[in-house]
Structures
1.
Amino acid sequence: MGLGPVWKLRAPSVAATATELRAEATHSAAERAPTDDTAVTRVANIAMPMDWDELAATVAACRQCRLCEVRKQAVLGVGDGRADWLFVGEGPGAEEDERGEPFVGQAGQLLDNMLTSIGLQRGRDVYIANAVKCRPPENRTPDPDELAACRPYLAQQIALIQPKLIVAMGRPAAQTLLQTEVKISTARTKVHDYEGIPVIVTYHPAYLLRSPLDKAKAWEDLCFMRRTMRQLKANQ
Ligand code: URA
Ligand code: SF4
């Protein structure tokens, strides 16, 4: 999948909040040589959203990577803007691209069932987003440079939501959040960290539709999430 070089790109990984994004953009022009990697330039070019309206408008008009060329619309996310739970998938598919909402196709039905199984409901204390906001052609896995280009938007969403727990579904979500190579089978059942926020890694629902034998493990992961959230709330 050619994931090697991207995890070294520096700018999007450190820019978590609008303030940091702005600082990054201000400093990058003055301090960096023109040979610096393109991700730095991208971050400098992204308008600095401060609230949900600005973020939504910026993403809707975004042309920071080639995925903008074939999308019908960018899909920012759905749910409670101050939810305790943030679920992050890979990228919009055909139905999501059509409707402008994440996880509304078959994988979305499974995700809804998974949420229900631990007492959650789309939109109620849950926010659902994707690692990239525009549909990759043929539903291919997003390329590392596309994930890097879109990462500041996910970072901005996290800064606005301030979730107690982030659930990364599948490798692209896990890798863009954790900025490291991830194998789901070894990363699951542990609590990782995104800028001080706990992250749990699990299988992507579309993968589970293809590999139903792993649904038992996904159920274990759901129980682990629920337990972790209880502990987080108890420790408040
Ligand atoms: N798969 C994803 O990763 N995200 C969606 O929104 C739909 C399917
Ligand atoms: Fe912009 Fe993200 Fe869409 Fe690429 S995928 S065009 S970075 S919103």
2.
Amino acid sequence: MANPNTVLGANPHPQQHENDPRWESVDEYSFSHLHPAGSVHPSNEVLTHALNSSKKEGLPNIAVSPSQGKYLMLQARMLRAERILEVGTLGGYSTIWLANAWKGVKVTTIEINPHHQSVAQTNLSHAGVSEKVESLLGPGVEVLSKLVEEVKAGKRGKYDMVFIDADKVNNWNYVNLALDMTRPGALIIVDNVVRRGMLADAEAAKTNSNVEGSRRVVENIGKDPRLEGIVIQLVGGKNYDGFLVATVNIEE
Ligand code: DHB
Ligand code: MG
């Protein structure tokens, strides 16, 4: 296998881009204290069940980390988000976190893969949040376009928060469609934009469509008067990556 550091180009500290054992240790230490046994929203049993059943069913091990999941939940709680849109359900791990934000929350989650959707539905049911989650099957762009029509027709309310964690080439398309159905002040989070630092590597973007998709969403949000955003770099059990965090502007 090619050394992934060579992909990064002029990197003066090659090993520092790879998993550092301290990152996972800090994740484990802090999460064990901040979400200890006895936590109920959601319980560690529910979270572990979702990850174990996803693994058993052959889903890729690419869900958000526990701390990242809880961060999403706390953001949703702070917003008192009533409607959350998620693109990329996978096994429903992040969906479980979002659905536990508070009693008034409903999550619409979109998944392209029927097997993933079915595993997620079982996990959501085990987590006791099926009633709070609407699980839709299909390609993100198609399903989102349908949702936009429903919001425009007044058949569904505008979203307060959007979490995008699907195919990276469509990152901007998802944000752009979400803008037609989010309220002013809504929060949009896009996962995996940093990718071990490749975000800043214009050369990598020429051959890696995921990097290109992440750069496009960063650049387009920067140019778009409807949005304000930043990238938060993250390390931990999921290596070195990051969230793009943006808000839909409030008209003054
Ligand atoms: C990977 C991780 C993700 O969170 C994701 O959404 C897609 C891919 C990965 O590690 O490959
Ligand atoms: Mg992801």
3.
Amino acid sequence: MNPFVYDIPVKVYFGRDQLHNLGGELAKFGQRILLTYGGGSIKRIGLYDRVIKELREGGFEVVELAGIEPNPRIESVREGVRLCKEHNIDAILAVGGGSTIDAAKFMAAGALVEHDPWEFFGANAKPIDNALPIVTILTLSATGSEMDSGGVISNLETSDKLGRLARPLLPKVSFLDPTLTYSVSKYQTACGAADILSHIIEVYFNTQQDLYMLDCMMEALMKTVVKYAPIAVREPENYEARANLMWASSWAINGFINGGKRKAWSCHPMEHELSAIYDITHGLGLAILTPHWMKYCLNEENVAKYVSFGVNVFGVDSTLPPMDIAHEAIARLERLLFEELGLQRRLSDVGIDDTHFAEMARKACRYGDIKGFVTLTPEDVERIYRMSL
Ligand code: NZQ
Ligand code: ZN
């Protein structure tokens, strides 16, 4: 176990009817607010009107930036930066899913520097020492962006989708009302669940000495997704299911379960290359790749991790031989993702062929081999893409 720092300073208002606190929270940061959101779902569910009412009552000066894309683009970030500078914005209010919140984070950082926000990404990334305060109202349980310090931005010109972590990007306050996710489609609910699961799997499958306590917490979080995601897909207005998924999404990636583990994530860098080139939904890409990555990495030395995953998360019979448990665990994961949640199973199902595999594999390893649960070279990554075809 490595030493680590525990410091998760995001204030969370969880549950129904908390929005009356919005004005009071924003007022701590100033009066000029940039309100940013996606393609219109917040208007369809009546949230936009509720937010505007709160902002009017609080006497805020509001500038709006609508149309943040799924897999948010650097152009939207640039526009947000421009608006922040032009209107001398005090804080950003992001209302939506991970894409809107991620874009807001880099607007917030970009507003305080002179250089282009794309320079926050890549091998020679500029530092992020400061950012405008960010407040979020989450409408989709998936990325955990509402409670983490990261974000991922696409650049279509260079076919890159790059992530960045920096503490100033942590939201100051996040409103988590599960009823706001009732309108999320079955498909996006399933993709969100796959993303939450992946955030935990990326940490759980680790060869470092583990904290038993954190392993148990991760198993509980995964069991929560396994139990409630199919219910949310079948019954979109089931509060218990939506609430459990929402809180699991935040705790899957807010830094707590990590407990100082230093191994790299594996499926996320592979998936970001799929989204970068094909603009597919992040959670779908993860759902397709993860079972193949698990099969590819399985060996006699690391089978114990698959055994605990199979037995403790999916209830696989612990008396079976370890390798049988491992294969059954992966089969149960596939059943969840592709049968119960109804996601597409293969890259070819979403129109992806092997044209860009070599380039994607090279870019997935742009910072060197992926030193995760099992170290992956570009050749390994390409093989996993091929298995997923
Ligand atoms: O744009 P609108 O109209 O709002 O519609 C969105 C969008 O089409 C819709 N939606 C959101 N809330 C809704 C709703 N539809 C109906 N009712 C609601 N209540 O859902 C669609 C997808 O939204 P998006 O924000 O793109 O989804 P998600 O939250 O999954 O975010 C995905 C992005 O986050 C990145 C991904 O790579 C991807 O770019 N990630 C961010 C992470 C982070 N910040 O830590 C980590 C993740 O691993 C991930 O990489
Ligand atoms: Zn993710």
4.
Amino acid sequence: MSAVVIDGAAIAEELRTRVDEELHVLRLSEVRPGLGTVLAGEDPGALAYERHVRRLAEGLEYHYVHEHLPADVEVADVLATIGKLNADPRVTGVLVLRPLPSHLPEADVNAIVDPRKDIEGQHPENAGLLALGRPRFVPSTPASCFYLLDSYVRSIGEDPHAYYTGKTIVVVGRSASVGKPAQWLGLERDATVIACHSRTAAAGRLGEFTRMADVLIVAAGVRGLVTGDMVREGVIAVDVGFHVLKDEVTGRTTMVGDLDFDEVAAKAAAITPVPGGVGPVTDVWLIGNSLVAAALAARIEPRFGTDG
Ligand code: NAP
């Protein structure tokens, strides 16, 4: 079988058109979204992502505030900085960049962000709403996985509202930002959801479960974790993993995911590539979430959500 390679860049463009329309509607109501980012330390990935988010925000003429804190910042100072952004009416959405230095407690940081400005949906209130099937903000990476899946399902003439019923979705990874919300989104679509994690692998049972997948979402952060013998013919595979490899001789970098792309593509009906799969849609979804936050601040019913 030769897999359809799901074109994340093209699907992101299409979503971007819808997001731009939503922004236009908000502007007609004189709503001006604002974004506040908080970064602690000097992690190169977080620094690069902040520059990326800043470009996105400035391109959309958002009010943009960035707080860069030292790596050894006290917990109280981080919480106070987020509190300042919470209190700023020009900042309608707040994004805390990861990874945080290890001494900062994720749970406390997530819980201090105003839940109505929490565009990554990490506040316990927003996680709870999503788990209960009443999302306010759907975290952008798992939302993108399903946006790509739904787009592929439509392309084969199926209805995404019915397609997953009776199907088995296997999610590898159970992080609060990707794995768990992906599981909840799968349950909301009436799929049978199997959640795998590092202990599944340690017990030697990962392949046993991944081979059951009609839809496989892999967000483990382990390069090439899922190989061809671990999937069934006709699987739809979504690769969330993102790894940058540098050739020591040429200095050139390449990006790969958690799937062994060639092996899985040889058996899959469809597969997302790395790069050009989940990543581009994630970016646009984050903008969509920032519009939800701006609408909430203006007491307007947000239109962007689970179905994009
Ligand atoms: P994370 O917080 O490190 O979580 C990784 C999860 O994978 C954990 O639940 C862990 O299990 C599980 N895991 C680790 N090793 C495993 C193994 N050998 N077998 C099965 N499960 C295993 O990572 P994350 O933030 O969810 O991100 C996952 C990956 O996605 C990373 O590569 C990250 O760079 C990428 N990512 C991409 C995007 C994008 O837009 N493309 C966005 C976010 C993240 P335990 O819970 O037992 O530890």
